């Protein structure tokens, strides 16, 4: 580490494998592994100033002004004092440096606080208290309850039964529910015996440091035996030990090599389209500045050659100064004078406006969700105006459009369907409307909050129907749920997916109660009888298998395999004898699909003892393999999961969030296209699409792309294209210039008659995203009103977003709530996280977050549109006032011999952007709005101009420059003509340079203030104060600076003595100011009047309606109930995470069997870890939050449960 904090150490060779030995520091030090000290700070006391200034001057604007400052200290060049640039530059640098210093001081404090924590380390056969920073790889450390995990550890032993530990991983993944880890039995025997632990000399070989939180591969060699290690035996730094008295661990990775620190890299820096346009414009302005300076330098050469020689008699040139050298100096002098075309205050003002608009989002009570106590949060301040330009929204389904609260509604058992959908009388079938809920009093362990109305299923259970019993026995055995029983009969379930919780709860109520589990057994209560099943294997779920199985031995000794999963997968594994039942169950699945339910097929089979023994041996060999472990296990799973017997299917309702259909309809009216990217089955996703108004029955056609080969997919896409646009695709739909700055062709927007939808599944999407086919897919999708991609992986979600970003001139937004949405959220221009049922991973990676999908319409149609409107108005006006200010210098050059004399007083030049015009334009950028939020919702079409970049573009910038050019001509020549040959009332001359400078700058102040008034649509007390106060400040400062007292203090700095009181006391001066102001704004007023009358914009039409309505809120629209019936097939997306099977069989989730001890799962934050279904349908929430609850005093949105009928008035 160098003196200035820069890492000067030579990069080490890439580590391919980590090798370490317990309790052997000398051996481990030979590998030069990192210590446990961390450093997240950037600076130290000595390096702060040089490093910070170096970073700040890497910004083009700062470097530009530094060059100007250097030029200004050269007397031969500068006609401006150095303070005109150094004051604003130092101000900007100081504010940024103070912010950076504050952030870094906080990082230093955090580092010191962490590095100086104490932990017990086993050194020289005794436990010593050491600072975290002194812990090394290979050390054995002791952790106690509620302590943070010091480094990435291999768990050796713990105080809990079966060597379990409980950890909270909120700092890693945002989830507050407890996770369980378990030590190897061989190390668990070490216990807390310090002597045994000191003698432990196990050797670990494992993967090198990496950022994969979800996997770990390694082996432990101890006592001549080799043991496999996986992620479930590792405690990661950043976790907190909970409900565990103590545990011992072996340090594998320390400090910067821990997975937490490996994941602390910076996210991709996102920039808005306005930022990118600004960079282009600033470069153009620099070029224009150079051209102006060249023109003026040439003018100086001509003047010096023709006229300058006549002045040499009384103003002799310096030695060696020729006309050519004078021209060279003049060029640089005008570079300094005209630098205000790009003032440094522009960048400061932009950041202030963005920060203010971010606070509006944070403070918006209408985006606050009382049920979960979650406000909206702008997690970035740099993207607000981009929210007003969104063209494509990519949304997850489960937990985003739906509540991720599962309700067990229906099932099919042995060819018979049970149950119905809906938990209120309005949606029940007629014959069930007055039927009471099932009475589960026969089952003392039933969950009282579970509600079911089909009595026939309970009767079948009581009659001991063998198929029904087998069905619920499977639900009670085939899962990874953990049970906690604090008091007798009071069960709390902790499930890693809400589907599993709902299914196990259903089995519980129907008499098959999952009671407890150990690593090798499951205890259930079957119709009041306690039974224990030996758990021999869990064939875990993953995204390819889409199913899970358990192999158990029943109390009678019979070997059985129970399997549940997606019906398409299960059907492939069934015995041919199940054909008839498959057909009946398929009909039931179609019925369930019409109601938008998530389905799951159940199957089982008996196993041969001898075959299973041989299979189990091969399974053990595969599970301990270091080479392609997962692939070998998958092959074994495929082998044993064959010739299954179908039991039936379950149907779970995943309820829509409040206001989802209305939000999607509002977004569609705003010409925002919504694409749903989900892991759910095609039929389920399609039905959710209909229920949330994404797909509609009145659409001309909904295309289904489900080909199993590239040729089939391409043909289906081309068929869809020919149906929507019969004429052949022309090359003209792709523009030759780059949309993304990477040389890719930009796909032009096309129009099509009619409305279409597109549904494509995951395996077809894989082909559609291939290089040869992606443009066909993109073109077909963009012609559709709605697109649903189902059965997609997280990577495919990101690929779809990237495809649209690459080929479309459009701004994208991705919204989701789970870890599988993170890649999509990071890939989009804007990422929105929903703090829902699937943890906080999406929120932690997002740019904006809130609790409900319906808040998206307010984020875009109100905050986004206002932010974009304000930023565009700010930029147009800012360039106008600065171009006007600068161009006056250009015209003056033709009347001062191109001598680089300034037309204004130097103090005015210094304070113009810092004081006189700063607050009014900030007021407009922070408070302006064309119409209020109610009218924004009433007319979503107001959003469209932002998508088309109508408010600020190269064309708008060019118009602004022309306007400034005209205003500068008026501001220079009218005062020039007015003062020429003019005398005061007492006959004295007023046509001096100082009086002209004062008159010109006063005219400029009035002109730009009036122009600001014309730009502003929404006047507040603050805006009014800023505008009038700035004018008052100008006169107060001017009279002060031009006073006798200031001149006597510093005569050289305040030469304009008495100019203000002499000039501004003359009536003709004020008449000149009035005339100049009128001439500046008259063409603008005329142009806007004619434009409004002849070609009004959507904004002007709505603002006219507002004035007609006298600014009262719009009347509520007529609304109609949404009704839909459909027989479309639905399906089940297994909302399950890989790895829980191994977790269960290893026993790392298990608590002590029964209860006196109070240290069970505890509440963390707002989430609870117990399974506590709430509401009338006993919906299951993995965080235990109350479902379907409303705060009593919270206003219900007017958009809930209705569909808007378009207003024909617009």
Automatic annotation (TrEMBL):
Binding site for Mg(2+): 396, 398, 817, 821
Gene Ontology biological process terms in this record: Golgi organization; phospholipid translocation
GO cellular component: plasma membrane; trans-Golgi network
Record-linked Gene3D superfamilies: Calcium-transporting ATPase, cytoplasmic domain N, Calcium-transporting ATPase, cytoplasmic transduction domain A, HAD superfamily/HAD-like
Location(s) in or outside the cell: Endomembrane system; Membrane
GO molecular function: ATP binding; ATP hydrolysis activity; flippase activity; magnesium ion binding; phospholipid transporter activity
P-type ATPase C-terminal domain span: 843-1097
Domain P-type ATPase N-terminal: 21-86
Major subcellular site: membrane
Residues spanning the membrane: 80-98, 280-303, 323-348, 878-901, 907-927, 956-976, 996-1014, 1026-1049, 1069-1091
Cofactor(s) this protein requires: Mg(2+)
Sections of the chain in a coiled coil: none
Pfam families: Cation_ATPase (PF13246), PhoLip_ATPase_C (PF16212), PhoLip_ATPase_N (PF16209)
PANTHER family given in the database record: PHOSPHOLIPID-TRANSPORTING ATPASE FETA (PTHR24092:SF52), PROBABLE PHOSPHOLIPID-TRANSPORTING ATPASE (PTHR24092)
Protein name listed in UniProt: Phospholipid-transporting ATPase
Membrane topology listed for this record: Multi-pass membrane protein
Record's keyword annotation contains Transmembrane helix: yes
The protein's enzyme class: translocase
Catalytic activity: ATP + H2O + phospholipidSide 1 = ADP + phosphate + phospholipidSide 2
Family stated for the protein in its record: Belongs to the cation transport ATPase (P-type) (TC 3.A.3) family. Type IV subfamily.
Catalytic residues, chain numbering: 396 (4-aspartylphosphate intermediate)
Region (Disordered): 1161-1194
Binding, ATP: 396-398, 500, 541, 564, 598, 678-680, 791, 797, 820-821
Enzyme Commission no: 7.6.2.1
Keywords assigned: ATP-binding, Magnesium, Membrane, Metal-binding, Nucleotide-binding, Translocase, Transmembrane, Transmembrane helix, Transport
Keyword match Heme: no
């Amino acid at each position: 580490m160098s003196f200035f904090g820069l890492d000067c150490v030579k990069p080490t060779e890439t580590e391919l494998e980590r090798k370490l030995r317990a309790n052997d520091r000398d051996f481990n030090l030979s590998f030069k592994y990192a210590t446990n000290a961390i450093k997240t700070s950037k600076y130290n006391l000595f390096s702060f100033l040089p490093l910070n200034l170096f970073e700040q001057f890497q910004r083009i604007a700062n470097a530009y002004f530094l060059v100007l400052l250097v030029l200004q200290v050269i007397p031969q060049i500068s006609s401006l004092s150095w303070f005109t640039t150094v004051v604003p530059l130092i101000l900007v640098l100081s504010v940024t440096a103070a912010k950076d210093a504050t952030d870094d001081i906080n990082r230093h404090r955090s580092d010191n606080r962490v590095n100086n924590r104490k932990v017990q380390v086993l050194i020289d056969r005794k436990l010593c208290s050491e600072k975290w920073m002194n812990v090394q790889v290979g050390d054995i450390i002791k952790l106690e309850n509620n302590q943070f995990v010091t480094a990435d550890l291999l768990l050796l032993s713990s105080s809990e039964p079966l060597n379990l530990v409980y950890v909270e991983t909120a700092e890693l993944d945002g989830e507050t529910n407890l996770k369980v880890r378990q030590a190897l039995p061989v190390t668990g025997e070490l216990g807390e015996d310090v002597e045994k632990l000191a003698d432990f000399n196990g050797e670990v070989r494992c993967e090198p440091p990496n950022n994969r939180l979800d996997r770990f591969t390694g082996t432990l060699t101890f006592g001549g035996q080799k043991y496999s290690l996986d992620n479930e035996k590792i405690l990661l730094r950043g976790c907190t030990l909970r409900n565990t008295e103590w545990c011992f661990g072996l340090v594998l990775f320390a400090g910067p090599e821990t997975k937490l620190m490996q994941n602390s890299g910076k996210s991709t820096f996102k920039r808005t389209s306005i930022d990118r346009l600004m960079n282009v414009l600033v470069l153009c302005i620099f070029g224009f500045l150079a051209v102006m300076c060249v023109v003026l330098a040439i003018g100086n050469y001509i003047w010096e050659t023709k006229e300058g020689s006549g002045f040499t008699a009384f103003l002799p040139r310096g030695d060696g100064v020729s006309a050519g050298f004078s021209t060279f100096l003049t060029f640089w002098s005008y570079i300094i004078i005209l630098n205000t075309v790009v003032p440094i205050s522009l960048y400061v003002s932009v950041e202030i406006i963005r920060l203010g608009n971010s606070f509006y989002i944070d403070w918006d009570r209408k985006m606050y969700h009382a049920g979960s106590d979650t406000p909206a949060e702008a997690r970035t301040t740099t993207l607000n105006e981009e929210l007003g330009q969104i063209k494509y929204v990519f949304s997850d389904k489960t937990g985003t459009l739906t509540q991720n609260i599962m309700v067990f509604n229906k099932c099919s058992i042995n060819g018979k369907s049970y149950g119905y959908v809906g938990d209120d009388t309005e949606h029940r079938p007629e014959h069930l409307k007055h039927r009471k809920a099932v009475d589960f009093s026969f089952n003392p362990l039933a969950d009282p909050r579970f509600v079911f109305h089909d009595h026939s299923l309970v009767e079948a259970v009581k009659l001991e129907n063998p198929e029904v019993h087998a069905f619920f026995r499977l639900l009670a055995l085939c899962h990874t749920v953990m049970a906690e029983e604090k008091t007798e009969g009071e069960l709390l379930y902790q499930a890693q997916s809400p589907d599993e919780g709902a299914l196990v709860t259903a089995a519980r109520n129907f008499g098959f109660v999952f009671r407890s589990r150990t690593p090798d057994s499951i205890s259930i209560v079957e119709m009041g009888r306690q039974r224990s099943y030996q758990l021999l294997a869990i064939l875990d779920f993953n995204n390819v298998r889409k199913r899970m199985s358990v192999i158990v031995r029943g109390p009678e000794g019979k070997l059985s395999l129970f399997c549940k999963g997606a019906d398409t997968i299960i059907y492939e594994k069934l015995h041919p004898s199940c054909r008839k039942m498959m057909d009946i169950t398929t009909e039931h699945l179609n019925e369930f699909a019409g109601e938008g339910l998530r389905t799951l097929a159940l199957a089982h089979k008996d196993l041969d003892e001898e075959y299973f023994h041989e299979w189990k041996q091969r399974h053990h060999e595969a599970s301990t393999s270091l080479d392609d472990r997962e692939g070998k296990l998958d092959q074994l799973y495929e082998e044993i999961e064959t010739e299954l017997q179908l039991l039936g299917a379950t149907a779970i309702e995943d309820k829509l969030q409040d206001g989802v259909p209305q939000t999607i309809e509002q977004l569609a009216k705003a010409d925002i296209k919504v694409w749903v990217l989900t892991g759910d089955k095609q039929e389920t996703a399609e039905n959710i699409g209909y229920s949330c108004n994404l797909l509609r029955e009145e659409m001309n056609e909904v295309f289904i792309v489900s080909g199993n080969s590239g040729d089939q997919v391409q043909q289906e896409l081309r068929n869809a294209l020919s149906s929507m646009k019969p004429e052949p695709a022309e090359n003209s739909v792709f523009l030759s210039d780059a949309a993304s700055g990477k040389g890719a062709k930009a796909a032009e927007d096309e129009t099509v008659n009619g409305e279409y939808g597109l549904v494509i599944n995951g395996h077809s999407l894989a082909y559609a995203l291939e290089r040869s086919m992606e443009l066909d897919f993109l073109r077909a999708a963009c012609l559709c009103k709605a697109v649903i991609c189902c059965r997609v992986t997280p990577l495919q979600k990101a690929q779809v977003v990237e495809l649209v970003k690459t080929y479309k001139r459009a701004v994208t937004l991705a919204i989701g709530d789970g870890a599988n949405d993170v890649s999509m959220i990071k890939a989009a221009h804007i990422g929105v996280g929903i703090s829902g049922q699937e943890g906080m991973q999406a929120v932690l990676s997002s740019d904006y977050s809130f609790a409900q999908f319906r808040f998206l319409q307010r984020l875009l149609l109100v905050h986004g549109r206002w932010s974009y409107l304000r930023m565009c108005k700010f930029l147009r006006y800012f360039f106008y006032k600065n171009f006007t200010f600068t161009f006056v210098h250009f015209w003056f050059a033709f009347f001062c011999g191109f001598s680089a004399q300034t037309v204004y007083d130097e103090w005015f030049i210094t304070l113009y952007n810092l004081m006189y015009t700063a607050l009014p334009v900030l007021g407009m950028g922070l408070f302006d709005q064309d119409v209020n939020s109610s009218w924004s919702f009433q007319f979503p079409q107001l959003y469209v101009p932002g998508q088309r970049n109508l408010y600020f573009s190269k064309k708008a910038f060019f118009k602004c420059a022309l306007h400034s050019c005209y205003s500068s001509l008026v501001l220079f020549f009218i005062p020039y003509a007015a003062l020429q040959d003019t005398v005061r009332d007492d006959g004295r001359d007023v046509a001096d340079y100082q009086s002209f400078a004062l008159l010109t700058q006063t005219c400029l102040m009035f002109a730009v203030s009036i122009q600001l008034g014309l730009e502003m649509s929404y006047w507040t007390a603050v805006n009014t104060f800023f505008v009038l106060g700035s004018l008052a400040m100008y006169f107060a400062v001017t009279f002060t600076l031009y006073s006798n007292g200031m001149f006597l203090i510093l005569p050289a700095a305040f030469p304009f003595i008495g100019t203000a009181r002499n000039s501004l006391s003359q009536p003709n001066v004020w008449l000149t100011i009035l005339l100049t102001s009128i001439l500046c704004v008259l063409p603008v007023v005329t142009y806007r009047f004619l434009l409004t009358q002849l070609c009004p914009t959507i904004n002007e039409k709505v603002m006219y309606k507002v004035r007609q309505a006298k600014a009262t809120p719009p009347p509520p629209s007529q609304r109609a109930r949404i009704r839909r019936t459909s027989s479309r097939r639905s399906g089940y997306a297994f909302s399950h995470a890989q790895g829980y099977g191994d977790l269960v069989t290893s026993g790392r989730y298990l608590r002590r069997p029964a209860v006196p001890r109070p240290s069970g799962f505890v509440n963390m934050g707002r989430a609870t870890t117990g399974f506590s279904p709430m509401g009338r349908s006993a919906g299951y929430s993995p965080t235990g939050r109350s479902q379907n609850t409303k705060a009593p005093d919270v206003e219900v949105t007017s958009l809930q449960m209705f569909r808007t009928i378009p207003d024909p008035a617009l």
